[in-house]
Design brief:
With 67 residues, the chain is an all-alpha fold. 67% of the residues lie in helices and 0% in strands. The protein is globular.
């Protein structure tokens, strides 16, 4: 099963403007990046606390995506 989150994580780490877009509208930012998320991936995105710091979110996203 492809993991559509990988390109989003890579871009999150390296692109401050993308981080801002993800905080504002995660699903819209994913779509704009050309990534189609599964229902489970969309739910995982909704479950994140986007109010955390960049460092906290990077650690959380990287940990959750390492499976």
């Amino acid at each position: 099963m492809p993991n559509n989150i990988d390109p989003l994580v890579d871009r999150w780490v390296s692109d401050p403007a993308f981080r801002a877009a993800m905080r504002a509208n995660p699903e819209g930012a994913a779509r704009a990046a050309g990534v189609t998320l599964t229902a489970d991936e969309r739910e995982a995105m909704r479950s994140l606390d986007w109010g955390q710091s960049d460092e906290q979110l990077t650690a959380r996203i990287s940990k959750d995506n390492s499976c």
